[in-house]
Amino acid sequence: MKNEIPHEYPLDRLTILKDQQEKPGWSFPSPIRTVVGHLNTGDYAPAGAEHICRIERKALPDIVGCCGNERDRFEREVERLLAFPVRILVIEASWSDIEVGHWRSKVTPAVVRNSLLTWQSMGLSVFMADHQERAQQYAARILYAVARHQYRSARKLLGEVPAAQKPSPNAYDPATIDSFCPLPEGVE
Fold first, then answer.
1. 77-118, pLDDT tens digit by residue?
2. How many other CB atoms are found less than 10 A from the CB of residue 84?
3. Measured in Å, how far apart are the chain's first and last C-alpha atoms?
4. What is the pLDDT of residues 54-73, one digit of tens each?
5. Cα gap 23→156, rounded to integer Å
6. Could you give phi then psi for residue 117, rounded to 5 degrees?
7. Closest among 181, 75, 81, 85 to 134, alpha carbons compared
């Protein structure tokens, strides 16, 4: 019997769940679909693997607030995120932006830096993306990778793919993902 299920997870099957409270949020390039719904924690998850992965998005003013007046609320959010195998805080700023501290708040750069490092030590991946465009690109790559991994795992469980079968040569080719989400020049 011919295998009816594609070997690789096609990019056009990727649907990203976006929490309804995430406004305006990120927009992902075609053929990625985004569906707005309710996520109990985090802002983005791959549909069908939302029990595996959550991404929390923060702009610089947001993360400064999370280290100040909103700290208790955000630490409860971090605790909920830690329940997921893949949990990532994507910040639309750089470590340099944190160190410079150009914001209107009594929160010091040291408090923000130390808070981020503490959350990392608890198991939350913190990714400094420099700016919104790069944050979107990397989030799309992460969400696609999680969905693709779940797809491959499901195929193996169904017996559709023999364990010894090698993935297609394009499976790990950076151009596969770069074709829908190119990185800015100079970034690898």
1. 999 999 999 999 999 999 999 999 888 889 999 999 999 999
2. 19
3. 42
4. 999 999 999 999 999 999 99
5. 38
6. -65, -35
7. 181
Cis peptide before 24 (omega within 30 of 0): yes
pTM metric for this prediction: 0.80
Q: How many CB atoms lie within 10 A of CB 71?
A: 14
Position 97 scores a pLDDT of 96
Q: How far apart are CA 119 and CA 165, in angstroms?
A: 39
| Sign, Cα dihedral of 92, 97, 101, 104 | negative
- Residue 97's H or E segment, with its range, is helix 95-100
Mean pLDDT, residues 3-17: 75
Exposure class string for 110-126: b at 16+ Cβ within 10 A, else e:
ebbeebbeebeeeebeb
